Task: inverse folding
């Protein structure tokens, strides 16, 4: 137990600065970090699929997952069409490979589907992190890092609030068949914590760093949406782990589990944050009330 706790602390101390530096520096380094995480997450999903009797094309899907963030980086000025075109080409390549490597009785459609879905679920969603870092609404390293960290901050706040409220108040389970430890009080507490932390982050980090802010109503709506999406992502990952019969997706992060265990909420919140933010952010020079 003590060794596990030490592993968690050491991993957190190493991983947190890496993420912060990558968000600040951006560019190729951020793309590389996203590519590695997405490739490992895709590999973990393929492990789940194989446990269920499927044969995903890992040798093609895993490099494709790594390549998607790199393509987004390479196409910064037109970052939608190039990666999407390459992803479609990759999907067609998967279908072609399945044709020659799977017999009719070996679930070729399901194997091809999970090969593609894993890439979209990991790399397709996490690539929106790069889009947030270089969002047209912000200029400069500090502003970009502050913006891309906002949904991450809200996810951490939700997890912390859910844990504390669940421990203090207990009560009925949220979805006992999927995750027996989660309670309704914890879900509500996580949501309320996210709202409070959103106001604090925008006032003391986003506003000074990027000269943008949100209205009161926008802050509440954005925080609630991100908190709910993050909790749904967490529950979904618990569901697929339960189907695969595993506790952790891997041991990529010693003491913390795998990429899917750590980023389950991020897969859901990053596209949502990218889509929602333009509706709520407003320019606000430093010093403005």
Result:
């Amino acid at each position: 137990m003590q060794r596990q706790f030490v592993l968690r602390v050491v991993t957190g101390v190493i991983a947190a600065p890496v993420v912060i530096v990558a968000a600040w520096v951006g560019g190729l380094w951020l793309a590389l970090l996203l590519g590695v995480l997405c490739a490992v997450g895709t590999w973990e999903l393929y492990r789940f699929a194989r446990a269920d009797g499927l044969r995903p094309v890992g040798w093609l899907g895993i490099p494709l997952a790594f390549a998607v963030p790199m393509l987004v980086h390479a196409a910064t000025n037109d970052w939608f069409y190039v990666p999407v075109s390459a992803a479609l080409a990759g999907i067609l390549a998967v279908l072609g490979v399945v044709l020659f490597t799977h017999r009719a009785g070996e679930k070729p459609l399901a194997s091809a589907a999970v090969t593609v879905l894993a890439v979209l679920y990991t790399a397709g969603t996490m690539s929106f992190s790069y889009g947030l870092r270089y969002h047209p609404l912000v200029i400069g390293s500090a502003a970009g890092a502050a913006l891309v960290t906002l949904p991450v901050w809200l996810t951490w706040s939700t997890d912390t609030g859910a844990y504390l409220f669940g421990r203090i108040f207990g009560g009925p389970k949220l979805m006992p068949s999927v995750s027996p430890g989660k309670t309704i009080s914890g879900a509500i507490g996580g949501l309320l914590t996210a709202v409070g932390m959103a106001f604090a982050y925008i006032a003391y980090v986003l506003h000074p760093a990027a000269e943008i802010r949100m209205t009161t109503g926008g802050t509440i709506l954005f925080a609630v949406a991100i908190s709910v999406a993050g909790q749904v992502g967490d529950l979904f990952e618990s569901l697929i782990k339960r189907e695969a019969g595993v506790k952790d997706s891997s041991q990529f992060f010693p003491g913390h589990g795998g990429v899917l265990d750590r980023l389950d909420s991020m897969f859901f919140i990053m596209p949502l944050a990218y889509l929602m933010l333009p509706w709520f952010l407003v320019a606000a020079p430093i010093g403005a009330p």
